[in-house]
């Protein structure tokens, strides 16, 4: 009974993970659409004739996000995997989209783009939280941790490049994504605070905080670089290796921008794009872990003797006819019996 209960729980967790994976895929697609709309809005001015179309696209994205939110709400009734924090981030994303539509109606493109950036950030936070929960479900189903004493839990302030060797690729990506998310949030907060700060002491504090964020961004870049080296050393997937190398290069460029430009909208946009790609990589790895593998076998030439031809002359037609009638005592009408009998008579004559 205990084993049956455990198997049922495992099956329920797998079904939950599959539904969460579907929501993650939908959210990542919506994050990309939101980024496109934000870029379009940001590059427009208040009298642009395209704003109504952008607002319509935003409304459609809002409706799509509502559908994902409803699916997550239904899942939350059956599983604790959907946490209140996820629900809050989804609410923040919906609020940001709603606010951006109102701002575009007032032709306030700057305010609309800011709300859209907040919506995209909340979507990415939701994805990060859901993937973390999926990893917990997977570890639980696999039994005890294969890395006792390792740093697979992604503790607090530890730098990503100190990750334990026992961690899986998905776990490492999750930890780097969490670090990137923390840098993004701190950068956004620094930008908001910077609008009200003047010179002197406040400016020095801002520069010190910015220096710390650059160091953290550098730690994330170093972790990606090490992952790329691992893939190359152990002959990993070429597509994954290319993506890691591109991410490493983009992070280097981002650090240069952070040093020279600070917390500008363009810098934060790059950070969000990098986070989205980190989450995409983790998502693709999770899909590989959860997909049902089929056992493949190499095709072989099979030579077997064919049966000999049917020799009608050896068949007792009368016996076959009686056997056929016996298989359905209730069935054949007199006309059909006569038809069957004439068929066998003809077969016998031939």
Structure description:
This protein has 350 residues and is mainly α. 73% of the residues lie in helices and 0% in strands. It has ten helices and no strands. The chain is elongated, with a radius of gyration of 32 Å.
Give a short overview.
It is built from ten helices and no strands. The protein has helices at residues 2-42, 51-76, 84-105, 109-141, 169-194, 201-233, 238-260, 265-290, 317-326, 334-349.
Give the topology, please:
Elements: H1 2-42, H2 51-76, H3 84-105, H4 109-141, H5 169-194, H6 201-233, H7 238-260, H8 265-290, H9 317-326, H10 334-349
Keywords:
single chain; 350 residues; mainly alpha
Mean pLDDT: 77
Proportion of residues in helical segments: over 70%
Succession of helices and strands: HHHHHHHHHH
Question: Whole-number radius of gyration?
Answer: 32 Å
Shape: elongated
Q: Tell me the span between the first and last alpha carbons.
A: 66 Å
Class by helix and strand content? mainly alpha
Q: How would a crystallographer describe the biggest sheet? A: none
What is the number of E strands? Answer: 0
Which spans of ≥5 residues are poorly predicted at pLDDT below 50?
144-162
Q: What count of helical segments does DSSP give? A: 10
| Beta-strand percentage range | under 5%
């Amino acid at each position: 009974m205990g084993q049956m209960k455990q198997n049922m729980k495992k099956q329920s967790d797998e079904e939950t993970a599959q539904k969460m994976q579907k929501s993650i895929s939908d959210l990542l697609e919506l994050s990309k659409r939101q980024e496109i709309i934000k870029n379009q809005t940001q590059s427009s001015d208040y009298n642009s004739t395209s704003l109504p179309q952008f607002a319509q696209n935003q409304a459609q994205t809002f409706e799509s996000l509502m559908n994902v939110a409803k699916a997550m709400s239904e899942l939350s009734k059956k599983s604790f995997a959907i946490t209140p924090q996820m629900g809050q981030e989804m609410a923040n994303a919906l609020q940001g989209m709603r606010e951006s539509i109102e701002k575009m109606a007032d032709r306030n493109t700057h305010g609309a783009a800011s709300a859209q950036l907040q919506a995209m950030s909340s979507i990415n936070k939701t994805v990060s939280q859901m993937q973390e929960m999926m990893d917990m479900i997977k570890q639980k189903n696999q039994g005890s941790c294969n890395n006792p004493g390792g740093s697979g839990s992604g503790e607090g302030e530890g730098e990503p490049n100190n990750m334990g060797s026992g961690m899986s690729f998905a776990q490492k990506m999750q930890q780097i994504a969490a670090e990137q998310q923390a840098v993004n949030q701190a950068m956004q907060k620094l930008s908001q605070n910077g609008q009200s700060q003047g010179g002197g002491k406040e400016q020095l504090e801002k520069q010190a905080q910015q220096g710390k964020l650059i160091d953290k961004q550098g730690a994330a870049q170093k972790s990606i670089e090490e992952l790329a080296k691992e893939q190359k050393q152990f002959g990993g997937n070429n597509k994954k290796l290319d993506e890691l190398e591109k991410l490493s290069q983009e992070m280097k460029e981002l650090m240069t921008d952070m040093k020279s430009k600070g917390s500008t909208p363009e810098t934060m946009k790059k950070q969000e794009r990098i986070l989205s790609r980190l989450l995409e990589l983790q998502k693709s790895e999770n899909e590989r872990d959860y997909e049902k593998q089929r056992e493949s076998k190499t095709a072989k030439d099979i030579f077997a003797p064919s049966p000999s031809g049917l020799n009608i002359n050896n068949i007792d037609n009368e016996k076959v006819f009686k056997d056929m009638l016996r298989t359905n005592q209730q069935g054949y009408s007199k006309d059909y019996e006569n038809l069957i009998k004439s068929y066998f008579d003809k077969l016998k004559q031939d």
